Amino acid sequence: MAIHVLAVHRDTVGTEQAAGGSLAGAYSVGLLCWLLSAGVYIAAKWVSTEMPPWALCFWRVLIAFAILLPIVRHHFSEMLALVSVRGLELLFIGGMGLAICQGLIFVGLQHADATTAGIIIALIPIITMILARLMLSEPMGRWQVAGSILAFLGIVVIIVKGSPAALLRLDFNPGELWIVAGAFCFSLYTVLLRRAKFDLNRLALLVLLLGAAALTALPFYLYELAVDERTTLNTSGLIALAYVAIPGGGLMYYLFNRSIEALGAARAGVLLYIQTIFIAVLAYFILGEKLQTYHLEGAVLIIAGLLLIILLKPEEKTAGA
Asked: Which of 10-19, 160-169, 187-196, 214-223 is modeled with the greatest confidence?
């Protein structure tokens, strides 16, 4: 199935592991990456009443870009060459996946709780699989269809909070719908990135995409400066911004790319599901959120759908067929 990636254009497996690195160490890097990523949702929710979402999005990607840029200085000539030839494509893909996606999620977190956001984000690989089928003609068997339907029903249960009456009244939390839209944007980004096949070092490509994201988020941020009263950063806002930009931004992106080099894109991407658990635990201890019955009911359906998709893969067509 198509997997959750940040800047993956080849599924290179185990290059560092083969060089002598330990498998346990590689998985530890991946787990730390998703723990830091989970903290971004907590920080964004923590300051959601004080700091506008696009300010958080813009400064996160810009600071992450600035942190990682010196690391890829040896690839500057290749990066400039790619920008000169495919600059608009980079701008669209990076803007979609690392700006629009994040901005929509941060908007959603102003109205939805972080626990719900974490469960919805677990849908990204499923949405990606469906889009990959439509846009890349990747195989999708009947079990994948059934799993996708189950996962979709799980999200419906969460959005209506387990109440069919809310569905009939179309009584939805707008924040949860924004987060679903953000998950869709990231899945589209993943498929577009797979189709683009940019021939560039993985980390250097990520830096270019982060730069594109900063340019995309800038107009939204400037609009907020003009109309939103929360544009002045207070202590809480500065702490949250420092976290999402440095450990939850530059370091997290770097660790994810390192985990891909050690584990391969497939195994590194599967660790995404651990993020949902991290978010729920952190939200409980830091934000005081509690798992509700509808969270558990929806999560069961989503997990069942994921198991169908992962364990019962579609049969590959033979060359003769």
From this structure: 214-223
For tokens 């497939």, the residue is 266
Domain that includes residue 48, residue range = 15-311
Decide if 52 is inside a domain.
yes
pTM score over 0.85: no
Quick: pLDDT tens for 44-89.
999 888 888 999 999 999 999 999 999 999 999 999 999 999 999 9
Tell whether 93 is covered by a domain: yes
User: Is position 316 within any domain?
Assistant: no
